């Protein structure tokens, strides 16, 4: 039944276009708080991974605000081992992230199929994860949810870490989403997140240590019937040594895991970058094939309290443990049990002085020789492990990787390209920094990690025209640009709130943190409408068109308004926008009247009738005038409509 419901939910989203930009495709994965789909960014014509939050999360205003803030912070991370965040949006309550689409599988798939892994392979997988976390910790971002499901392995072998900041966004809601997160990630949860909810870079270090344990053993260190039991174990039980399950694991690998997963966060490495350096030291020891490295194991071992002897009662056992005895060493510890001497119950113990020892001749000399030989052996071991097998890292900065490799080889060392970073000072393609640094101690035949300069950090300004200001800022975040001045102007074509223009312009190459100044539309400019009632149409039409309005004209007769003048106007006040229409009603003058019929009437009667009707009269004699003064014709003719006061011409015989 659950599968059917999931399929229906997926079917509803497949094919839908979010934010007018992302066409949702096939479902890729489903988690406790979101489902991931393959999608097409129709604006940039590229495939993206769309992480869509489950229904209901978008209804929580606090979560929505935190989601946007954390997404923006994650979008600022630019690192080859971090899944890039391109965009964030809210489509009618559907919250989503648009991210880089990675073709491949998760680390969970690899663990399920191949764990336990060899220590070398496990560390090689952990190194890029720590590289991604180092970049995040340098930027002040804590992941809070490191687990195999959030580590992606691309088909071309690149390791990518996803979901930076989402754990913090979900935990802020305080609702069932948080409970789901706890249930999904409790196996990797740092003790401080369980006890007081606080997290810093050392919390990610702890989760990374748990991840390493699982890679080495194929199992999680703590188990229980409920998530609460597992969380309790994180708080109250140390992570066991991986070698208890895989005996071939060297003690210094045990120590690395237990140092990273110390319950007291102050005993862990300060952040992922420190842990990354420790991983490289352990990896070098593995390459040398060392079954043990006492100095390295000692450096990594978590300090423990010294076991105190009872000064008033001798229990008959002798056991010596130093404050920094590694847990892995205790499993090989020999306990000496002397022969017990009985005494009556209830009687105090009495200590008898030992009998005098009779020394045989020469025994002191033999003991001295043994002590000297032991000291020589110890000194030789200390010299080898502490001095002889180390050399000094050369200065490789500003060399090309090829030249750096040659120079390192002269010292018997190897180089590897571990990272690339931007630099304003070191030209592109030259070594920016090394680990270890120049002058630092390194094992002979060891490996120097090279960070190569990508040259000055520069980005192209994206197309921002037509976006609202929030969307424009989201587009700026991945290229590390910031909002500058915002100037609002009226615009007749761009809707209010949208970007009209911006500078630097589209596709210009600029440095990070460059301020982009915006001109944002205030929408169409409102224009006041003047009243032209009573004015001539010619005057009104000219003035209204000059203001940017269109004009429509209708005509009608009006006895009071002169012909050609404006009888009425719609609207006659208020404001309109350019190209809006103003309607004018123009007077055609007084209404027309019918011309009376005066033909065959006497001239006197005709003049009287026409004059009384308000017309003017003009008399003309017919060419063959007979002197009868009878109207033979009239113009205009009888029944025609003319303006009042018009001239009527009559012709008499």
Please specify the SSE layout and strand pairing.
Elements: H1 2-13, E1 17-18, E2 22-30, E3 34-41, E4 46-53, H2 61-75, E5 85-91, E6 94-100, E7 104-106, H3 107-114, H4 119-138, E8 151-154, E9 159-161, H5 166-171, H6 176-185, H7 191-195, H8 201-217, H9 227-236, H10 251-260, H11 272-287, H12 294-300, H13 327-330, H14 363-388, E10 390-392, H15 401-410, E11 414-421, E12 431-435, E13 441-443, E14 447-453, E15 459-460, H16 469-476, E16 482-489, E17 499-503, E18 509-510, E19 515-521, E20 526-528, H17 537-546, E21 550-556, E22 566-570, E23 575-577, E24 581-587, E25 593-594, H18 603-612, E26 616-621, E27 631-635, E28 641-642, E29 647-652
Parallel strand pairs: 11-14, 16-19, 21-24, 26-29
Antiparallel strand pairs: 1-2, 2-3, 3-4, 4-6, 5-6, 7-8, 8-9, 10-13, 12-14, 15-18, 17-19, 20-23, 22-24, 25-28, 27-29
Task: Describe the fold and architecture.
Helices cover 31% and strands 23% of the residues. The chain is an alpha+beta fold. It folds into 6 domains: 2-100, 2-Layer Sandwich (Phosphorylase Kinase, domain 1); 104-168 and 177-300, Transferase(Phosphotransferase) domain 1 (Transferase(Phosphotransferase), domain 1, Orthogonal Bundle); 390-453, 2-Layer Sandwich (Trypsin Inhibitor V, Chain A); 459-521, Trypsin Inhibitor V, Chain A (2-Layer Sandwich); 526-587, 2-Layer Sandwich (Trypsin Inhibitor V, Chain A), CATH 3.30.10; 593-652, 2-Layer Sandwich (Trypsin Inhibitor V, Chain A), CATH 3.30.10. A 6-stranded antiparallel sheet has the order 1-2-3-4-6-5. A 3-stranded antiparallel sheet has the order 7-8-9. A hairpin with a 3-residue loop joins β2 (22-30) and β3. α4 packs antiparallel against α11. The chain is rod-shaped and about 185 Å long. It catalyses: L-seryl-[protein] + ATP = O-phospho-L-seryl-[protein] + ADP + H(+); L-threonyl-[protein] + ATP = O-phospho-L-threonyl-[protein] + ADP + H(+).
